[in-house]
Design a protein that fits this description.
The chain is mainly α and about 475 residues long. Helix 18 runs antiparallel to helix 19.
Length: about 475
Amino acid sequence: ARSLKTILLGSRRRTLLTVCCLLLAAAVLGGLAVLGGRAGGQAAANSASLDPNSDAHLLLKLSNANHRYEMGLENWRRLDYHRAEKDISAALDEISAQKEQSETEVAVVNNSMGCLYLDMGQYEKAYEYLNGAYVTFRDNLGADSLPARAVQLSVAQYDFDTGDYESALRTTQEILDASGPETETAVVTATGHIRAQVLEAEGRDDEAVALYQKVLSQYSGIAADGKLSESLADYANDPKLTQSEKEARTNTVRWIARTYDQLGRAQMAGGDAAGARSSMEAGLELCLSNRDIKQRNLITSGLYDGLALLDAGEGDFDSARENIDLAMRIQQNLFDFDGAYPGLVTVYDDYGSILEQSGAPQEALDYYEQARTLAVNAFGENYPQTAAALHALGLYRLNAGDPAGALECFEEAITIRKNILGSVHSTTAQYELSRARALIALGRTQEAREELEQAAKLCRKLGIGGQLPAEIDALLRG
């Protein structure tokens, strides 16, 4: 794909959330991305996706185009990417052919298509759509307009996904410099999430934790006692609220709960199990206290999943099984996608990890294989989550004494990362470390050293510190 650098004022960018657009005097499109993460040092790739509970309505003049667009958004929420692509593309074709449609309305759908393709791991296509949306918003509304900054945020996430951390940090800082923290909380907090992701990938866990805590501080004004988890129970449940006020406040609660989830995962990666549990329990309390969120929500499922990993790490496998079962049932009850919800890929992998730790290797293998099969069927061969599922299966095989089988998984995962423009990324370095371990187990030490040197070079290029380069250096010295 041609670089966006020459078009986007010197840098490329993408989205983990879609804070979209002001349509003339109409409405602000908002979509908060589902931010993912895995514990135990596995930098698995959870796709960012449209918040399944946050409506993003486009006021199109053509009712059929509007219907196809809404259907596309609904399928996107369900992670049914192929149907979403078909529906949103049809809506785009229809409104693009109508002279009465404004350029900004077309740009809104272009931005949606770009973000969808980013979720699908189809970065070259995402480039073109995001570029078209950005140029329209910049020329018609101004480079500092909310829609233009939303697309910038999208491309910042693209940079993160493909390993250009420096550009991601630079662009997000530009967005923050152009945003008012008091009036644009959603923009500031969303940008903070992307910056925290980069910090985590660079091994700067303490800084990531501090940034997530700063994100939470943006909402301190609605918590009289300063304790968000205790004062927000009735924030969106007040019967005196109008429907629009209720929806806005409920989305705020979702966003805060998601922040607690990400904070907890960053704390878990940094070894602060107690802090992680406190954060995740606070997020879960928020979800369960809100009558519109409760347990039928992906955020709630993710929080139960995180707590299950914490339980397993502390040896409480009964609680771990109980929490991971809750996470799985929520996913299964939300939507049905050809018999299984795609969000279960991550849950299956985590379930396998818990079973493996508890001494049930055969059961663990079943879940790892289910994760791989579901990822391929739901997302396709060249997709970040497919690579993550293969990597998890490879780690299981390596631990089970099958280095040849593990090597096959690791090599396939690395190939996927390179196919989707993610070869220069901390995830790729993690996979190369795993491949080197399999090669060492097979006695192929020279190949292992070459792989480790490649991973070390990648870490230096990306400025990655912490556990990953330390493990690589230790193997090189050994």
